[in-house]
Automatic annotation (TrEMBL):
Signal peptide: none annotated. It comes from the Eukaryota. Residues 1-138 form the Integrase catalytic domain. It comes from Phytophthora cactorum. GO terms for molecular function: nucleic acid binding. InterPro entries: Integrase_cat-core (IPR001584), Retrotran_Ty1/copia-like (IPR039537), RNaseH-like_sf (IPR012337), RNaseH_sf (IPR036397). One of its GO terms (biological process) is DNA integration. PANTHER family: TRANSPOSASE, PUTATIVE-RELATED, TRANSPOSON-ENCODED PROTEIN WITH RIBONUCLEASE H-LIKE AND RETROVIRUS ZINC FINGER-LIKE DOMAINS. This is Integrase catalytic domain-containing protein.
Amino acid sequence: MEENSLGGSKYLLLIVDEASGCMKGFCLRAKSESEDCIKTYIMMVQKQFGKKVKFVRHDGAREFATNSLKAFYEDEGIEQQTTVPYAHQTNGTAERAIRTIVTIGRSMLHHAKLDKCFWAEAAMTAIYVKNRLPPSRV
């Protein structure tokens, strides 16, 4: 994001469950925090729902392709799928979700006449609301 949030976050990591459309957001101070968030999310899904994560798809950014994450995926039996660089349409589900959350968040900030430093709160609120709406594909 252009400006740090009140909590000091600079990045939004958005995880989208392709089967349900459910989203989980993490506000990060550094991209290196992505690894712990991804591991935490995968373990939470597997424990709470008793379902195995079968694959993870990402754009190949360095923070998603660390040796530690590769080892974690291998240990958990998770296939890692990397999309084509600079071709956002190949990761359409995530890219569309990011655009939707950012648009909703910016609209909330604009209509509430809030400063840009509230972007993290607006994004997390947008995710919360979006997860409670019926999916458009039904």
